[in-house]
Automatic annotation (TrEMBL):
<protein>
    <submittedName>
        <fullName>TIGR03960 family B12-binding radical SAM protein</fullName>
    </submittedName>
</protein>
<dbReference type="Pfam" id="PF04055">
    <property type="entry name" value="Radical_SAM"/>
</dbReference>
<dbReference type="InterPro" id="IPR006638">
    <property type="entry name" value="Elp3/MiaA/NifB-like_rSAM"/>
</dbReference>
<dbReference type="InterPro" id="IPR023862">
    <property type="entry name" value="CHP03960_rSAM"/>
</dbReference>
<dbReference type="InterPro" id="IPR058240">
    <property type="entry name" value="rSAM_sf"/>
</dbReference>
<dbReference type="Pfam" id="PF19864">
    <property type="entry name" value="Radical_SAM_N2"/>
</dbReference>
<feature type="domain" description="Radical SAM core">
    <location>
        <begin position="260"/>
        <end position="498"/>
    </location>
</feature>
<dbReference type="InterPro" id="IPR007197">
    <property type="entry name" value="rSAM"/>
</dbReference>
<dbReference type="InterPro" id="IPR045784">
    <property type="entry name" value="Radical_SAM_N2"/>
</dbReference>
<dbReference type="InterPro" id="IPR023404">
    <property type="entry name" value="rSAM_horseshoe"/>
</dbReference>
Length: 654
């Protein structure tokens, strides 16, 4: 069966929308395949605008892995802006891919990567435009399997009505196994229809199919139990963990956007996972254990990626990139290799206690010296012990003084407001820290043009973290604390004029909290918001707090619960949480013990360098921490082709 492109109908409309280039496709390194030559077809979606979705590493990795299979086709789709959505509805144009402009509804799988829960309404827009029934129970054999992934998939219950399945954890091996199941099922003549395919996926234990689990509730609104309703379905679903990162050097040929995007760089993930134990950080908890990519593996990926893209910046990515056991050797080797080529390096995520000026100098050697960014997260020593962010103010001041003395002129500090046990005083300490940074920076640099920007976000408790039981701070309290903080920053104009302050009000955070820790009853709230115009809720200009509150009141009140029940209420130890049957590897007992340590402001060590503290991941997942040092060095640069963006005459003369 041939599936035709809708571009002939779409193209005349593009002159009437903003940023039409984001819908045309044809990016450097994009893949085009003939539909009829493939057996399994994936549509991969990042449920946000092209400029946010295209740089996403997860989607790019899966796109390349799938397209390397000779009989598999993978194309991409992103959320369309409301102006194009209106025109598509008017002219009967379905949700389309940017690669072949094929209708999304024609694919075997629609794989949706959720980095944030605020993209849920965008999923509903895409399904509706694609002609795919919103509710999974209404779909037939002719509709794609809607498969959720990404960090938000560790609690997919709020969208259980809308997705057919979810994969927890790493996707590299999972997508190939799912592809094989679909290939076999189609090759056998689709026995048992959609139901049988989903059962085959579910019985492996690595794919969660919500319809195969029944949820019952107690009279107080809490969950009574979650039980499978098919014999072939396991009681618990486990996350997937890709252990040998060097075996998965993707993306080999990163996509180069046609339109402006949020990250204009070529990125390499240098390690995955984190054992620092920051209690607020879901990403750090659910991606354990730490798995480092080797120096040689990093070097090969950087070289290949630069040759394939022409980017002038390389981002070395991880949750805390400076924690790679051989980060100094990696950065020096790369800086040496590309010196004189105009290629710069960046570490988007750096901890105060992992920073040193030698590392920073290597990063800026081949590029401009921009500001430094650190994330103390909490203003006071006490609150940093609560969240297990083990960095002292002395560490921060010593670090920024070293930086300012070596030529840096500005620093950005990230904090959160609304943390568990937080008081006004904890937040006001942010102002004192910023002022001390200015004082110390002026003294170290011997000049007054020192800048410090403090950026503050509202804290959202997340599943599979020690704070999953915490009551979320209400928006009014957060906004009042931030008002007092601004007053404190401006109380001394001699220092305050050099301190910038950026913050978001607490309202979007509360809705993110509703979606993060909600159960299946939240699906009706999501659908009502969408039907009343909710789109792009992660964008301030499109988000409507009042719409979410009204929808929650209308849909939850008849059920005996409300917005506060899901957000600002503290949970009890024995409460069944909506995601308890979805196994991240962390034991609930360990998470509860760490929550108690947080309430007592007790810190937890990093298990990379200390004996195991029994969080459960390694024995449960059959994994282990993989770190250096290896004692190896970056391999010399290999010859590159004439005209390559990283062709360096200095190396040719050697």
């Amino acid at each position: 069966m041939r599936v035709e492109s809708v571009f002939d109908r779409l193209e005349p409309l593009l002159t009437r929308v903003s940023k039409p280039v984001q819908y045309v496709g044809g990016e450097l390194n994009a893949t085009a395949k003939a539909w009829e030559d493939t057996a399994v077809r994936w549509c991969l979606m990042y449920p946000d605008a092209y400029e946010v979705g295209l740089p996403n590493q997860g989607v790019q990795i899966l796109y390349e892995i799938l397209n390397e299979q000779p009989d598999v086709l993978a194309e991409r789709t992103y959320s369309v802006w409301p102006d194009l959505e209106e025109l598509m509805r008017e002219h009967g144009i379905p949700q389309f891919t940017v690669d072949g402009h094929r209708p999304v509804g024609a694919f075997d799988v629609l794989g949706v990567s959720f980095a944030t829960e605020l993209g849920y309404t965008n999923l509903l827009t895409a399904l509706d435009l694609a002609g795919v029934p919103l509710h999974a129970v209404d779909r037939g054999d002719e509709h794609p399997v809607v498969l959720a992934g990404g960090h938000a998939a560790f609690n997919p219950e709020p969208i259980a009505d809308f997705v057919d399945a979810a994969v927890l954890g790493d996707g590299e091996e999972a997508v190939l196994e799912i592809t094989e199941q679909i290939r076999r099922w189609k090759g056998e003549g689709r026995p048992g229809g959609r139901e049988e395919l989903l059962l085959r996926l579910a019985e492996s234990g690595g794919v969660y199919v919500p319809k195969f689990y029944d949820v019952s509730y107690r009279s107080d609104g809490a969950i009574a139990e979650v039980l499978p309703n098919r014999e072939r379905v396991p009681h618990r679903v486990f996350k997937r963990t890709t252990m040998e990162l060097d075996d998965w050097p993707y993306p080999k040929k990163p996509l180069v956007p046609l339109a402006e995007s949020v990250h204009e760089r070529m990125s390499v993930e240098i390690f995955r996972g984190c054992t620092r134990g920051c209690r607020f950080c879901q990403a750090g908890m659910i991606t354990r254990p730490v798995r480092e990519r080797s120096i040689e593996g990093i070097g090969e990926m950087v070289q290949r990626g630069l040759e394939a893209t022409g980017f002038e910046e390389v981002g070395l990515l991880s949750l805390s990139s400076a924690d790679h056991s051989e980060i100094q050797e990696v950065t020096k080797g790369l800086a040496d290799r590309y010196e004189g080529s105009g290629t710069s390096l960046s570490l988007p995520s750096t901890r105060v206690d992992a920073f040193n000026v030698d590392l920073a100098n290597e990063l800026s050697r081949n590029g401009r010296r921009s500001g430094l960014t650190f994330a103390p997260e909490g203003g006071s020593e006490r609150i940093r012990r609560v969240i297990n962010k083990m960095v002292s103010e002395e560490d921060l001041i010593r670090t920024v003084c070293t930086a300012f003395a070596n030529g840096w002129r500005q620093v950005k500090l990230y904090f959160m407001c609304g943390l568990p046990t937080e008081t006004d005083e904890d937040v006001l300490q942010i102002a004192e820290m910023a002022k001390e940074v200015i004082r110390a920076g002026r003294e170290a640099a011997g000049r007054k043009d020192i800048r410090c920007t403090i950026s503050i976000g509202g804290f959202v408790p997340k599943p599979h973290t020690p704070f999953q039981w915490a009551g979320q701070t209400d928006p009014d309290t957060i906004d009042e604390r931030l008002r007092k903080l601004r007053e404190a920053v401006n109380s001394d104009r001699r220092l305050g004029r050099n301190i910038g302050m950026r913050y978001h009000d607490g309202k979007p955070s509360l809705i993110e909290g509703l979606l993060s820790r909600g159960d299946r009853r939240i699906g009706r709230v999501v659908e009502r918001v969408w039907r009343e115009g909710g789109r792009f809720d992660g964008w301030n200009e499109h988000f409507s707090f009042d719409r979410w509150v009204a929808a929650a009141d209308a849909e939850l009140t008849p059920l005996g619960v409300d917005l506060a029940w899901f957000t600002t209420r503290e949970r009890a130890e024995d409460e069944v949480l909506p995601w308890d049957h979805l196994d991240s590897g962390l034991t609930k007992e360990w998470l509860w013990a760490d929550w108690q340590d947080a309430l007592d402001a007790r810190e937890q060590d990093d298990c990379r360098w200390t004996p195991c503290f029994d969080c459960g991941v390694c024995p449960t997942m059959g994994t282990d921490i993989e770190i250096g040092p290896s004692g190896r060095t970056l391999l010399p640069i290999s010859p590159v082709s004439q005209g390559s963006p990283v062709r360096n005459p200095a190396f040719e003369a050697r």
